[in-house]
Amino acid sequence: MTRLRTALLPSFLAASLVLAGCGSDAASPSASEAAATTPSTSASESQAASASEQPSAPETAETRVRIRNSSYDPTELTIPAGTEVTFLNADGFAHTVTEGTDGEAVDDPIVDEDIDQNGSVSVTFDEPGTYNITCKIHSSMNMTITVEG
């Protein structure tokens, strides 16, 4: 049995090398062929080309605020003007998203919406400024959104 293994091993290795050589020639061009058919570009040219091919960013950004354990997460948020903020209620009971503090709405709030369990509400903050957000049901729920122009 040992003689048979010893005799077959060199044949197996030779066949493997022949097959490996055949596969690599067909799959890829030689270095000289690649140089002849591929134009030369610098790294900065390649980066500039790939950057220009990428789609432009949307005009408005989107940010999420999760409501869980009767609190807003995060409690402070800084965003550029024009950003849409989506509030997601992950608690098992209703909340509100209301401009105001300590459960009290300001006069003429930009947002004053009820959010059921697993519900959401989206608000776009177009004007720069600081906005306090509270829950009218749970007065300890407060957050601050700073909108930069």
Summarize the structure in short.
By secondary structure, the chain is α+β, with helices and mostly antiparallel strands. The chain contains three helices and ten strands; from the N terminus they run H-H-H-E-E-E-E-E-E-E-E-E-E.
Structural Rg: 31 Å
* Structure class: alpha+beta
Determine the mean pLDDT. Answer: 76
Number of helices: 3
| Biggest beta sheet attributes | 6 strands, mixed
- Along the chain, the helix and strand elements come as HHHEEEEEEEEEE
Shape: globular
The end-to-end distance, rounded to whole angstroms, is 83 Å
- State which percent range the strand residues make up: 35-45%
Low-pLDDT regions: 2-6, 15-19, 23-59
Number of strand elements: 10
Q: Percent range for helical residues? A: 25-40%
Features:
6-stranded mixed β-sheet, 149 residues, globular, disordered N terminus, alpha+beta, 4-stranded mixed β-sheet
Describe the protein's topology.
Layout: H1 2-27, H2 31-37, H3 43-53, E1 62-68, E2 71-73, E3 76-80, E4 83-89, E5 95-101, E6 104-105, E7 112-115, E8 120-125, E9 129-134, E10 142-148
Parallel strand pairs: 1-4, 3-10
Antiparallel strand pairs: 1-2, 4-8, 5-6, 5-7, 5-9, 9-10
Task: Describe the model.
- The N terminus is likely disordered.
- The protein starts with a helix and ends with a strand.
- The radius of gyration is 31 Å and the shape is globular.
- It contains three helices and ten strands.
- Strand 5 and strand 6 form a beta hairpin.
- By secondary structure, it is of the alpha+beta class.
- The strands form two sheets. Strands 3, 5, 6, 7, 9 and 10 form a six-stranded mixed sheet that branches.
